[in-house]
Amino acid sequence: MAGSYDTFSEAGKRRRQPFAKTSRHKPRRWPLALRFAKGAIHGTIVVPVVLHALFAALIVYIDQCLNGHLGLPASIIPSLSIVVGLMLVFRNQTSYNRFWDGRNDLTVIITSVRNLTRMFLSCSYSTSSTNDAFTARCADRADTERTIRILVAILYAVKYHLRSDWGAVITPGTAMNSSPANATFDHQEYDDLLPAGLVGMDDKGLGLPLQLTFFVEQYIKRGHDKGWFHAPQASQMQVQLSKMVDAYGRMETIRLTPIPVAHLIHQKQVLSLFGMVLPFAMVDEMGWWAVPIVTLVIFTLYGIEGIGSSLEDPFGYDRNDIKMDAIAEDIRSEVMVLVEEWRRVGGGEEGDKDWQGKGVGGEMFMGGRGEGAKVPGVRVVRFEG
């Protein structure tokens, strides 16, 4: 039995859904076959396509108008097309694997942020009801919020680090070098998530994502020492943190390891030579029709090669890259909703009043109406058999 849900307000209007920024909202106004911008690769291949079209026109003109007799047997095309096809298949498959692996590694980081947030909010409290414990809990609450904000900041730091926007300029295949003149230091987008007084070490070779994980590790250690987390639970938290660092390292590997230059050079040369041979093999049978046919073939082959080039580095700002900006904003909204709910029932002022008298705060996601209460207009669930 399959289930689906829609979220509505009390007035019947649709509310914001999870991953509101990442998911597509507007329908496409034009069929994809008629799109020549906004994600298309036409702009990157127009120069070689035009040059090959002009070369084909030159060959046909010499053959047809000047009796140059430049025609070659058409049987050479199949043998060359096999080689070109194999190279393009390897190129595109490798590039898409990099794109897909990068997206999966980002999902690992997101999952770790969610798991650690859930564990921290659910388990970071003391069951003692003394006044001293109540005072200490206020500081512990602030420590928990600070650590959760750092978890979200790690996602932003990974995004900017892979884009060379945090004090380190990364060139594919080379070491990361500090370049304050070229790097972008504007991190206002997530400045409120970073610990107060944080000093970045990018200029000394330490990436900010790894630097922030130390704050999370130290929080887990403090929680274990205070009795919030038992040893197996603290170990599981450290595993989640290690998975996050591992995924960040794999994304860094994708960013710093380009396709071997020997393959790129040979591929470009083979494509160029194939496009130059085509007019000679078509001119006798097709005449001037060889020009549009060659242009169409070159457009197709260079388009496939251009798609591979655009997917090779999936962490940038291009339309075909991973939507890291939108994903980070959606995860931030999701985590902040959890923090606000935690404040309301267990970590905020009302939660502190309940906790002071009962030992712990209320239960999350109950709407403040008690157990079993129905929150009007929040979710409509439909089951389809």
What does this structure look like?
There is one protein chain. The chain has 385 residues and is mostly helical. The chain has nine helices and four strands. A two-stranded antiparallel ribbon has the order 1-4. The protein has a two-stranded antiparallel sheet with strand order 2-3. A hairpin with a 7-residue loop joins strand 2 (168-169) and strand 3.
Which structural traits does this protein have?
385 residues; mainly alpha; two-stranded antiparallel ribbon; 9 helices; 4% strand
Please give the structural blueprint:
Blueprint: E1 2-6, H1 42-65, H2 76-123, H3 131-162, E2 168-169, E3 177-178, H4 208-225, H5 231-256, H6 261-286, H7 290-312, H8 324-347, H9 349-358, E4 380-384
Antiparallel strand pairs: 1-4, 2-3
Helix pairs in contact: 1-6, 1-7, 2-3, 2-5, 2-6, 2-7, 2-8, 3-4, 3-8, 4-5, 6-7, 8-9
Kindly, what is the distance between the CA atoms of the first and last residues, rounded to a whole number of angstroms? 5 Å
Which range best describes the helical content: under 10%, 10-25%, 25-40%, 40-55%, 55-70% or over 70%? 55-70%
Q: Label the overall shape.
A: elongated
The stretches of 5 or more residues where confidence is low (pLDDT under 50) are 1-14, 167-186, 353-360, 369-385
Regarding quaternary structure, how should these chains be classified? single chain
Helical segment tally?
Answer: 9
